[in-house]
Amino acid sequence: MTLKQMARLKSNIDLTSGDIFGTLTKLALPIMGTSFIQMAYNLTDMMWVGKIGSGAVAAVGTAGFFLWLAEAIIILCRIGAQVFVAQSLGEKNLENAKQFAQNSIQLSLFLAILYSCFVFFLRHELIGFFKLGDVTVINMAVTYLSVVVTGLGFTFINPVFTAIFNGAGNSRIPFLINTIGLVTNIILDPVLIFGIGPFPRMDVAGAALATVFAQFVVTVIYIIALKKQDESYFKVNLFKKVDLSKIKAIIKLGLPVAAQEGIFALIAMVISRIVASYGPTAVAVQKVGAQIESLSWMTAGGFSTALGAFVGQNFGAKKYERIIKGYKSALLSACSIGFFATILFIFFGGPIFEVFLHEKDAIDMGIVYLRVLSISQCFMCLEITTQGAFNGLGKTSIPSAVGIVFNALRIPAAWILSSYTPLKLNGIWWAISLSSVFKGTVLSSLFYLIVINKYDKNGIISYDSQVQDESSEGLE
């Protein structure tokens, strides 16, 4: 398929009619594919960087925290783009969908500039926070961060493009575009890291440059795809005056989720600092282990994103019965993924870790990490899927509050379990795993009490007027 053919691909789905499971699956599969691609970006970097040594993995993983923090800011725009585009299309308001798409992109570019400047000028101090204790590792982390920050504009805007297409029920184009980006990254990683052909050996800087260029390619193709779409809501003009009312609505909806992700990243930084007291190998194990664990949470995230678009369109169309059925269907699928991950982590942790790290002590640590985290996989998928349902309703504050509370508890739990029990380093892994168990249990219980329990046989959610008022502020 050529770029021109791909850009003209029409696969927008009306999520307000048809078989629920089939509709959700059709939308979710490409989104999951896109999530796997994002995971593959990170795993590819870790795999090639791992051949340099665990110190290089620790450096890239440490610098990666600030890309994670960037994700929190990106979510501010991405959630608003997807939910408001979906709800607007559910109401058949194409002009509103266009306005939300356009303002989401403009906001993401503005925030990208601010964050890039912040990270670049404070890169030494930011890496210094982790007290890595190894000058070589510190220098590699600063180098990686210095290069990757130059492409943050692409990193910010691409997820918003993805959200716009997903909100319209068109998840195939983002999948195809991001696949091209992944292939670009896979090809460039070994070439730039090890200096194949005419290229000099760049080590961790090469991994960063490969990622930046791949994201640039994705941005270019997205712009082409937008121009080739026939639907009016894809015809955005980035130079048009910003609509402050739309920006306000986007920020109001996305802020709780962004706050959750940002606080989560900051909490993870503190946890990483505790892990760093056990040496660079422990840091490398945590970074690689987190990427392996993304196998389940990014897959569940695909269902969560699809469910958010599904709920958004059906909420706009006032088809509440489909919201309940869609949630149950997505939940069953996501939890099946969590069960598969549990089995995989318990019995195949060693072979998986050997792909990325080669020191025996690192592999042994990694096996324990995955076995402890295996306990929480189904609960994590439960949490992520339920979050998507709440987001589609415009109730982003509820899952955010649950996430912030239980993620924050990881810090004292990690400190206590690692300091005052025989578990030591493994106590940190237990703190992470148990918090996920609580998050999944509490959030799904809240969805039952707040939404499902208030749904009556006439197809009405009794709190509808309150939610409709809150969500429709930005739709008017």
Structural class: mainly alpha
- Please give the domain count: 1
Distance between the termini: 40 Å
Which stretches are low in confidence, meaning pLDDT under 50 for 5 or more residues running? 1-10, 463-476
The percent range for strand residues is under 5%
SS elements, strand count: 0
Counting H and I runs of at least 4 residues, what is the number of helices? 18
Describe the largest sheet. Answer: none
Helix share of residues?
Answer: over 70%
What is the rounded Rg?
Answer: 22 Å
Oligomeric category: single chain
User: What is the averaged pLDDT score?
Assistant: 84
- The coarse silhouette is globular
> Would you list the SSEs in sequence order as H and E?
HHHHHHHHHHHHHHHHHH
Labels describing this entry:
single chain, 476 residues, mainly alpha, 18 helices, 0% strand, globular, disordered N terminus, disordered C terminus
Walk me through this protein's architecture.
Helices cover 79% and strands 0% of the residues. It has 476 residues and is mainly alpha-helical. The chain has one domain (19-472). The model is unreliable at 1-10 and 463-476 (pLDDT under 50).
Compact description:
This protein has 476 residues and is mainly alpha-helical.
Topology:
Layout: H1 3-7, H2 20-50, H3 54-90, H4 94-121, H5 123-128, H6 135-148, H7 152-167, H8 172-194, H9 204-228, H10 244-276, H11 280-316, H12 320-354, H13 360-374, H14 377-392, H15 397-408, H16 410-419, H17 425-450, H18 464-472
